[in-house]
């Protein structure tokens, strides 16, 4: 029983393919193991993970569980969510799987996303790129009648960006995604509050270091490193007259005032 618990802890799948199931049955028979033990534990584990999902939804307002570091206690939930998606494909195809119709309904009830979140993000990003090309900027209104889901998506990116800057692991953004969004002129902060916050941090850096050359990878404050790189990219767009740039004359003057370098040989 202790071994079963240890296997369940790493989300071991007791139910498998027909071929493997046949071999497992023969093995259990030869060892005198009750064939219902695995299924019983598997069902209990599913209910346990589902309860964890309910807590996640309550805390985050959605059921898009991210895959995070195995060092985190929530990594098992992320792995479990991925497994539900794989099993759902089998369920839809009518092939043998451990997911039941009742479980599908329970997951639908909490807004579980069956498609891979990465693919959904890429799809919305492509829609944003098209919007940017057609309108000359990436400022999608929150309520955008032609594509309401896109308006909602850009709002969520801003929320995730704030979480990213705080170092919150629940953020769905990565440095690569931030780079992609900045590339099309995405505005992270409509009201300028975040910009001001990081400008103040840059001023503190200048006071302590005597210069404004914050490395793009700056361990003491990695978010500040990302921010200064973003300012340089937006400045280049500003000089080209690109309307998608969030840089303004006022911001340029503020940065110049503290000796900010718009171009550097290399960013470490």
UniProtKB/TrEMBL annotation:
One Pfam family it belongs to: HA
Organism expressing this protein natively: Proboscia inermis
Residues in Helicase-associated domain copies: 44-112, 121-186, 193-260
Highest taxon listed in the record's lineage: Eukaryota
Protein name, UniProt field: Helicase-associated domain-containing protein
């Amino acid at each position: 029983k202790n071994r079963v618990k240890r296997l369940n802890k790493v989300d071991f799948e007791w139910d498998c393919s027909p071929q493997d199931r046949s071999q497992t049955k023969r093995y259990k028979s030869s060892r005198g193991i009750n064939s219902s033990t695995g299924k019983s534990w598997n069902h209990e584990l599913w209910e346990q993970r589902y309860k964890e999902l309910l807590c996640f939804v309550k805390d985050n307002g959605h059921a898009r569980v991210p895959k995070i570091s195995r060092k985190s206690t929530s990594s098992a939930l992320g792995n479990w969510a991925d497994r539900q998606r794989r099993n759902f494909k089998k369920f839809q195809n009518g092939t043998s799987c451990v997911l039941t119709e009742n479980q599908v309904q329970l997951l639908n009830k909490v807004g579980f996303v069956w498609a891979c979140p990465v693919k959904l993000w890429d799809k919305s990003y492509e829609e944003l790129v098209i919007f940017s090309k057609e309108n000359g900027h990436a400022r999608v209104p929150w309520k955008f009648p032609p594509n309401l889901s896109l308006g909602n998506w850009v709002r969520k990116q801003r929320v995730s960006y704030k979480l990213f800057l705080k170092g919150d692991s629940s953020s769905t953004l990565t440095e690569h995604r931030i780079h992609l969004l900045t590339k099309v002129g995405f505005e992270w902060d409509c009201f300028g509050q975040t910009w001001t916050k990081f400008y103040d941090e840059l001023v503190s850096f200048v006071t302590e270091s005597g210069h404004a050359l914050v490395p793009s990878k700056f361990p003491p404050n990695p978010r500040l490193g990302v921010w200064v790189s973003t300012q340089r990219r937006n400045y280049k767009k500003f000089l080209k007259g690109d309307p998608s740039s969030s840089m303004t004359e006022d911001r340029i003057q503020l940065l110049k005032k503290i000796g900010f370098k718009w171009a550097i040989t290399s960013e470490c």
